[in-house]
Structure formats: C-alpha cells, structure tokens
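Bug #77: duplicate submission created two jobs. Keeping one. Sequence:
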Amino acid sequence: MTSQVYYRKWRPGCFADLVGQEHVATTLRQAIRQERVSHSYLFCGPRGTGKTTTARIVAKAVNCLDPQEGDPCNQCSICVSFNEERFMDVIEMDAASNRGIEDIREIRDKVNFSPGEGRRKVYIIDEAHMLTDQASNAFLKTLEEPPAHVIFILCTTEANRILPTIVSRCQRFDFRRLPSERIYQRLAEITEGEGASVAPDALRLVARYAAGSLRDAENLLEQLVVSCGDGVTLAQVEELLGLGHGDRWLDLVKYLLMSNTTASLEIINQAAWDGVDLRQMHRQTLELLRAAMLLEWGAAGALELPEHVASQLRELVTNLPNWRIVKALRIWGDVNMRYDAPSTLPLELAVVEICNDDIATPVEAPRTEPAARPMTAPPARRPAPDPGPASSTAGAPPDPSQTPASPPHREPDRPRTAPVRPRASAAVNEGMGPVGGGDDLAGMWQATVKALGRATGKRYNLGALLRDCKPNTIALEGDTLLVPFVHRPNMERMQEEMEDPGSRNLVTEAVTRFFGTPYNFRITLAGQTEEGAQSNRPNQHSPLVRTALNMGARIVEDTLE
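Kept job's structure:
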C-alpha cells in the first residue's frame, strides 16, 4: 500500500490555500479573472515557499471551465483531471537534468501543437537557473513570442544565475520565506486533518527549525508522526533534531559571557563524550548568544525562546558589559563547523579566545580608531606647514614634527583612506625636487608599491615588478619621476606594461594618490646613464629577447651591433 507524503497530499489546490504569499496570489488571481495572463512568468525565492505549487495552480486556473474569481473550481472535468495528474497540457520539466540546447529545441518544436484537452498549454520549468547559456539563448525567441495558447512558468531558487535577457521577458514574482507563525498554523491544520496528536510546543519548534520552508516543516512533521506514533512531545522533537540539552547550552553561554574558561571547556568535552552533534551544539549556542545581544539592546520582540530561558538571559546581560556579548558572538560565529567529522578543537580555541580578557582590547580598537582619526588628525596637521620656510629649507633635514612620512608607512594596505591624500600632497608641494624631501619620496614610493600589490597589468603583477626599485633611489626631476630598476628583466617587463594604457593608468592613479601630483615616468636601470639606456632600447623591445627572458633565460652580455 502506497501513500503520499504530506507536502504532496496537503499541497494547496487554489490561490486561497497558499500560505504566506498573498502578494503573489492576489496579483495572479486578478490577472486570471481579467483574462490578462502573461505568456511568461518567473517565480523565484527560497526552497519550499510554494513556487512550483503556484505554477500548478496557475496552469489549472487558466484551463478551468468554471473559474471562481480567478481561482480554479476544482469541480469541472479539467480540474478533476488535473488533480488526478491525468491532464496532458501541463508539461513539467526539470532544468537540472534537461538543461542542454537539444532539450530547448525539443520544446521549441512542440509549442506550436495545439492543446489536447484544455485551452492553454503550460510549460513549468523547475530549477531554471540550471539551463546552460547556449540553451538559454536558444530559448529567448520562443519565450518572447510563444504561440497564443502557450504559457511558460520558470521557477528558480537562484534568480541571479538566470540571464538578464530571460528575466526581462518574464513577469517576475519574488516568493518570501514564511514566518514561523504561519508555518505553525499550517502544521496545526495538517495534524488535525491527519488525526495526529502533536504538542503545540513541538509544532512551534518544528516551525522555527524549518527556517521559512513549509515543505521542510511538513516533511519533518511526517517523520515525527511516523517515528513517535501518538502524542509527539517537545522532548521527542528535540531528541530527533539533536536539540536536546538546552540547559547545558544555556550554561555554556553563561560561562562564556562570564569568562569561565575551565567550565566552558568541560561542557564542550562532556558533550563530545556523550555523542552530541557538535554542529547542533554550535548552532544552538550561537542562537542563545544572539538572543543575549537582542536582549541587551532591547529587541526582545524578535526572540522565539521559552520564557524561562529568556528570563535567565535577561538577568545575565544586565551585569555584563555589552562589548563582551559582541565579542563572544563574533568569535563563536566565525567557528567553521562544516567538516565531515568535526573536532572539538575549533570550539575550544573559540572558548579560550572569548574568555581571555586580554583579547578584548584588540577587538575593540579596530572599531573605534578608523572613525576617530579622519575627524581629528587631518585638521590638526593640515595648517601646520608654512610655505615660506619650506622653500628656504629645501635641502635641510625634515622637521620630525611636520614630516608626514608616517601615514604612507602606516596605511599602505588602505590607500583610499581620507588622511593619506592631503598629507602626501602637502609633502610633495613643499619638498619637490631631486634633493629635498628624499625620505618622503621613499615612504610615498613604498606606499605606492604596496597599493599595487594586487594590481595585475597586461601580463605581470605591477607591484611585484616595482618592488625591484629601491625606495632610496627614487627621485624627481621637474614633472618626471625617475624609477630605476635593479634587474634588467624586471625593467623590460615594466616597460612592456607601461606601453599598455590600462597598466599605465593603474600606476598613474597609484602615484597620484600617494604623491599628490601626476608625474611622467622614466624607467631606467640602476647605475646606468640615460645614453646607455637609450642605446639598449632596441634589445629591450626585442620580442625574441623578452620571450627568452620569460622562459627563464638570463642576459650574460649585451653587445650592440
């Protein structure tokens, strides 16, 4: 004897039965009632939210012989045939297994055939994002101008993977995750219809665990009814889901927030010896830490916890600094528990890091320092330099109180921060020239090279090439920046990159950002005169020489003919 699973047996048969998608049901019902049905729809949203079910209701309603205000009547011969899965004019296709161009060509060849039973032929394509690019492009013309009797409904959980040209040809409906209260109400209706006895607290836990997916909740409910028989209790649900030991996880949260390292480690290891799923332990503890954060900031309305748990957490957070809660939540949330055989070590390391008060300062510093420095540091330093004395002391050592060389050294990895550009610009304007400001040039050059550390030109990494230039050899001659390389191969590669407009723009932007002024570049070899550099120019641009150097060759002697 065979029986249907709950999510198929209790699948909605009309728009009025859809749960949590009223914005979709209302629009589609009005379109059917006014006979303004589109030729193509795109239903997208999380799994288990009713996309395919809605598509089937649309297919039944447009063929119904006696629609009731846009809803199918479920009484006529068409509706009966559809409900018994005998209706031939609804074609459901799984794009995950029929994703090639040949499958789309088959659809394109068959859409011209008239419906066999009803008025409209409806194609429902599940997992539409799995179609290949070639298949999607072949589908475009048919999707845009199908025969009058054809409707296409595409369902997907990843709308971002569908070609924009397909999305623009469809009416898009976004399905939302279902609130746990709506899932609970639907589960209560199913248990009443099935004659099963399930405690309300158990149903609420199932609804919360489903995370907005009604199909997942219905599957879990059926599993509980089958395994537990009459009288499903909250403890049985927790045992099945691995969510038991709630008091143990609450104690763990208390010890973490109170910095009791020993007790926290003992709870984790005892749970491992008891065979507890460490992933579930991590997840449950994370939810309790989140609840503590919400209670600390007065957002208790978003919680779905038993009252005795919420009261204990509320009492705990009143005696704790809020930074400790944020620190624990951040560190515990970063633990990676996605391995097949999770170890206790990641959790133990997280415990030690959370409970160690010495780590509190580094956690707090990055959150406050970036916001404070752009407001206070630049205004204090900007009016300090005097243009008059600067021009008369161009060759003198820089004054430590006015030298802005430290920001390029301190913030090379964040070149877009506000304090860098004005300081670098002031330094260049005061000390421009081949002699004055030499230390500043070295610092600015180091910052420029680090900023280009991940910039890839036409063929090479620009930052890696420019590291060959010693900072103390960088000099200015008017509006030209002298860039001497130590090794000839790197110089030749950089010359090749600078011939490409894209690479040259990257270097120009970085230099302008840190030096404050756009410069021309002169790429030379360290210790070589300009005449020597010009005389070697033909060999430097020789494709044969560059190819050999790229393959690992080394120039032993350079003889000019």
